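Researcher: Structure for this, please.
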Amino acid sequence: MAKDKHGGFLTPKAISARIKQKGLTRLRWYCQMCQKACRDENGFKCHCMSESHRRMMGIFANDPSKFMDDFSKEFESEFMKLLRTRYRSMPVLNVFVVNNRCLDTLRAI
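Model: Predicted structure, token format:
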């Protein structure tokens, strides 16, 4: 089997490139404060140790109610918008609307 310019099909670099091409398929690691999506647990740990994350957490620690109020207002407005547009005339469980809202938020990243 001939090697390509990346050094092989099964090298970590090639695997990572293919994952990046597919995008973030099953996103489980997301930092709400920084609005950063991570591919895996190791990436999330590295993000949590980063200077920018620590800075954001310091700002949050100074006035947590401001951030929580902002997150709550944003969530409520997007939740109601989804109810008005996608689920206008049909009964639906809240969990479906919440899941769609989360997916839409992650796709926008």
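Researcher: Any notable elements?
Model: Residues 64-85 form the longest helix (22 residues). The two ends are 38 Å apart (CA to CA).
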